[in-house]
């Protein structure tokens, strides 16, 4: 009989945002930004333990008010502008495994700056990781034609050259091959990968989410866009 995988969900919410001060607890549509992520993660059928990793007491208070566990205040050295996700996740895993007395199988990173993910986005990304045996799984979004890699150029002196792939002369935008980018909503990986010092590994699989729910909020203009998107998604029946 197969055992249920132990999966640690970690909502990473550092204080001290410079682009939008107080971003993680700023209200979007009458609800603190981080609460969108907490509510989606709480409805996941696969996450077995959910925590918020933050260095900020105000964020911790809001998270607890939404029913999330905040088992520690993240050390200041893991909450700098330049701090990558890897040591933050290693810290969260070590803390929770010591507290619970047994290791996890997988972990998933959820960032408050992507508020329009659904519980299915989380579970389908995790399930793809589990089913394929990959090192990690990420949510993806299709790149708009105007942002296609073939449109990106570099300069060598004054000469314009393809940055990554050639753009055949006369190719219509709609005829370019489909390209994707990480949507920033869900990052799932094997526990041993993280503890071994890697975030993605060699084999990465992806779950595609629709563009209508894709946003990463970093700057004031992103916030304005998110307010518009929220209104439109609610019109379409999304429970956000």
Give me a quick take on this structure.
The chain is α/β, with parallel strands linked by helices and 240 residues long. The protein has two domains: 7-141 and 180-233, Alpha-Beta Complex (Spore Coat Polysaccharide Biosynthesis Protein SpsA, Chain A); 144-178, no CATH class.
Topology:
Blueprint: E1 7-12, E2 27-28, E3 31-32, H1 33-42, E4 49-53, H2 57-65, H3 85-100, E5 106-110, H4 119-132, E6 136-142, E7 153-156, E8 159-162, E9 180-190, H5 191-195, E10 204-208, H6 220-235
Parallel strand pairs: 1-4, 1-5, 6-10
Antiparallel strand pairs: 2-3, 5-9, 6-9, 7-8
Protein model, in words:
The protein has about 240 residues and is of the alpha/beta class. It folds into 2 domains: about 5-140 and about 180-235, Spore Coat Polysaccharide Biosynthesis Protein SpsA, Chain A, CATH 3.90.550.10; about 145-180, no CATH class. It contains 6 helices and 10 strands. It has a 6-stranded mixed sheet, with helices on both faces. It has a two-stranded antiparallel sheet with strand order 2-3. Strand 2 (about 25-30) and strand 3 (about 30) form a beta hairpin. The protein is globular. The mean pLDDT is about 95.
User: What is the N-to-C order of secondary-structure elements (H for helix, E for strand)?
Assistant: EEEHEHHEHEEEEHEH
Enumerate the spans where pLDDT stays under 50 for 5 or more consecutive residues. none
Cα radius of gyration in angstroms: 19 Å
Q: Tell me roughly what share of residues is in helical segments.
A: 25-40%
Total domain units: 2
C-alpha end-to-end distance = 37 Å
Anisotropy-based shape:
globular
The tally of helices reads 6
The CATH architecture of the largest domain can be named as: Alpha-Beta Complex
| Secondary-structure-derived class | alpha/beta
Kindly report the spatial arrangement of strands forming the biggest sheet: 4-1-5-9-6-10
Q: Give the overall pLDDT as a whole number.
A: 94
Strand content is 15-25%
* Main sheet specs: 6 strands, mixed
Supply the CATH class of the largest domain. Alpha Beta
Number of strands: 10
The name CATH uses for the topology of the largest domain is Spore Coat Polysaccharide Biosynthesis Protein SpsA, Chain A
